[in-house]
Design goal:
With 701 residues, the protein is α+β, with helices and mostly antiparallel strands.
């Protein structure tokens, strides 16, 4: 084939060379004017690819072939000298200078690198025997003949002879070797000449610096530093009573452990000692050895880095102690507060923010960590305005994220009872629509009603405080004119609570086998079609009336189901088929005996009993209150028959406490304790939290 040479970037052809055989390796020297190749038969050739560089062959003709050898299996050009080439021939290594071989060296290692008159090779065969456990003995360095000769001349002859020898075999590595030898002997004149020959500007400047020193010991120490003999240089500095130079040396190379030792032995000052502690802390911090880093940062009183390390170590108790060590208004107090807030330690974070004189950050911390009582207390103690607007804004964001329980609590803390009632009513309606958890939906309606009561009480209190002489009529007109966004026909929360309460009560009677009670309560549900689905109501009524053998009521319920617009034709036909199967065997009449003795068997009044509709209904049983002993709940204002309470301690509807200070009388309304009690037997004390909302979040979640 043919080898072509082009110059970049113009791609101009500079030369070409035709070669015979099949080469397996082709390399160029560092100037790219000479190439060497090895073919499949181990024939090694060196040839010029520039037409002007020709040599005479054995016949006297011009040829570009410069060198030819046999049995060659590896080669490597020098990276800094175009006339040096290393060749592996059988088990010997030849170094060619100007295509003339030097004395061979016995070696079977593969060539890796050739630079500065030094050849680096690796024993691949030995390495492959144990590739998982390599060791440095497999890497072999070989020096060229020129480098070996110069080292021998420097050791045995004078430095002048070495200079003359290097002039005849000039190479930067040889000149640098002469310069280093001269520095060791403090021969600055010869060292300067050698650095000039190898174009080492920094070496020239170093020699000038050494010549400016008057003390030979100090010159020797600087030379030790040049050759990286730092311990020897430190020893010389200390012998010369110059610990400052020893400290500067260790600081220059970042050996801060040595710096600390030198400073503690009497050198330097406190500022340098603090600097060394900080650097040692950085050393351990960079290596994630934070426990040791904390020790050195504490010694250096570097509070900023100490905070970061303690936070990474999750040592929050130590981080909290730093609050007391910092003066008021310090900038790092805000940093500590932010760190503690990020892990939910609210109280200590608030202390840090307050001590830094940033009350707004303390309030934001309480809001973020849902500590609303603390936020309000801070705002009141420090006369911070617009805290309610902040709570409302945050509540609106919670609503956007569909976190209704948090939003309701925020509205309560902002004393926006109207908004919390709106949201509670919305959630209650959604739960009622699903009918998956009717107990939860009932609790939501009750809480909504209690919020409306709290709003009315708050309005009355504010009106009385602002205008003591204001009439009751004016206050009442103010309450009636308030836009609370409630439709009292379908959205009154007490009506919703009643509907779901009776729904649950009817199912309880049904599963307990009390068919009279189940039908009686199911008939009460017909007044709540705006809250519950009519299909659900009349399906329950038809079921309870059928099992109770009140076929007339069953017939009415089926007629209502078949007339509903919300039911599909398929379902209507299904209801019609069921009714047909029932009334082909049963007449649509109610048992006269039971109807005449209804009150004795607790049977419900008929659906057209107007007298019953005008009477009070016991929420504990669903029975009409006629002349029995009863009492009225002081919270929800619903009546209860004393005979149906069965020693209950709480109202069945709103779960308020039924503790009374007076004895109930026949046909007399007894005032009740209006404080709301939770669904358990616990009593909530204190003013920080309204006990009526003890089970708010358990209901919503």
């Amino acid at each position: 084939g043919t080898i072509h040479k082009y110059s970049l970037p113009h791609l101009k052809k500079e030369g070409s060379k035709s070669i015979n055989g099949k080469p397996v390796k082709i390399t160029m020297n560092c100037k790219s004017n000479t190439a060497a190749s090895i073919d499949v038969h181990g024939l090694f050739k060196v040839f010029s690819i520039q037409s002007e560089r020709n040599v005479l062959d054995k016949t006297g003709n011009k040829s570009t072939l410069l060198l030819e050898r046999k049995d060659v299996w590896d080669m490597k050009w020098s990276s800094d000298d175009p006339n040096l080439l290393a060749v592996m021939e059988k088990n010997r290594m030849y170094v060619f200078r100007n295509f003339q071989p030097e004395e061979p060296i016995t070696s079977t290692a593969d060539l890796c690198h050739f630079d500065n008159l030094e050849i680096k090779s690796v024993k691949i065969d030995e390495l492959l025997k144990s590739p998982d456990t390599p060791h440095f003995e497999l890497v072999v360095d070989h020096h060229t003949k020129a480098l070996r000769d110069v080292q021998e001349v420097l050791n045995r002859a004078s430095i002048t002879d070495a200079y003359s020898f290097i002039m005849d075999n000039s190479h930067p590595r040889l000149w640098k070797l002469l310069a280093e030898h001269s520095l060791q002997n403090l021969n600055f004149v010869m060292a300067d000449k050698a650095f000039v020959q190898c174009a080492d500007f920094h070496g020239i400047q170093f020699v000038k610096q050494l010549q400016s020193l008057d003390n030979k010991k100090l010159q020797q120490a600087e030379v030790c530093v040049f050759f990286k003999k730092f311990n020897e240089a430190e020893r010389i500095y200390l012998e010369c009573e110059r610990p400052d130079l020893a400290i500067d040396l260790r600081m220059k190379f970042g050996n801060w452990f040595k710096v600390e030792k030198l400073l503690q032995n009497g050198g330097g000052n406190d500022e340098m000692l603090i600097q060394s502690w900080n650097k040692m802390g950085d050393y351990y911090s960079d290596r994630q050895m934070l426990t040791k880093a904390v020790q050195y940062y504490a010694q250096a009183k570097n509070t900023e880095q100490l905070i970061e390390c303690l936070y990474s170590l999750e040592d929050y108790s130590a981080l909290t102690k730093l609050i007391h060590t910092l003066p008021e208004g310090h900038d790092l107090l805000q940093t500590i507060g932010a760190k503690l807030m990020s892990v939910g330690i609210c109280n200590d974070a608030v202390k840090a923010f307050v001590k830094s004189s940033n009350i707004n950050l303390a309030i934001d911390c309480c809001v973020t960590l849902n500590q609303w009582q603390n936020a309000i207390r801070l705002a009141e103690n420090h006369n911070i305005q617009h805290i309610e607007e902040l709570l409302i804004e945050y509540a609106n964001k919670q609503i956007e994220s569909h976190k209704y329980s948090q939003a309701i609590e925020l509205f309560r803390k902002a004393r926006k009872h109207n908004e919390s009632a709106r949201l509670l009513l919305k959630v209650a309606k959604a739960e009622t629509e699903k009918m998956s958890d009717t107990r939860k939906a009932k609790k939501l309606y009750v809480l909504c009603a209690l919020e409306l009561d709290a709003m009315k009480s708050s309005t009355l209190s504010d009106s009385a405080a602002s205008s003591p002489m204001r009439g009751a009529g004016q206050v009442l007109n103010g309450l009636l004119s308030m836009d609370i966004g409630m439709d009292y026909a379908n959205g009154n929360p007490w009506k919703g609570a009643e509907a779901l309460h009776y729904w649950n009560l009817a199912h309880k009677y049904l599963y307990d086998g009390d068919l009279d009670g189940a039908m009686r309560v199911a008939m009460l549900l017909t007044d709540y079609e705006g809250i519950l689905k009519a299909r659900e109501i009349y399906s329950l009524l038809a079921l309870t009336a059928f099992y109770n053998r009140y076929y007339h009521q069953t017939s009415k319920a089926f007629m209502k189901l078949e007339s509903l617009d919300e039911i599909s034709e398929i379902d209507k036909q299904a209801y019609s088929d069921i009714a047909m199967s029932i009334f082909t065997t049963h007449r649509p009449t109610d048992p006269k005996k039971l109807r005449n003795q209804g009150e004795r068997r607790h049977v419900a009044p008929s659906m057209k009993d107007d007298a019953a509709k005008n009477k009070e209904i016991c929420v504990a049983s669903g029975r009409v209150i006629r002349d029995s002993k009863w009492k009225r709940c002081g919270t929800c204002k619903h009546p209860l028959l004393l005979a149906e309470l069965h020693q209950r301690a709480h109202c069945p509807l709103c779960h308020a406490s039924l503790v009374s200070n007076t004895t109930p009388q026949k046909s007399q309304n007894i005032g009740l304790n209006s404080s709301y009690a939770p669904l358990g037997d616990e009593e909530v004390q204190g003013e920080e939290e309204d006990p009526r909302f003890k089970n708010l979040f358990s209901a919503l979640n």
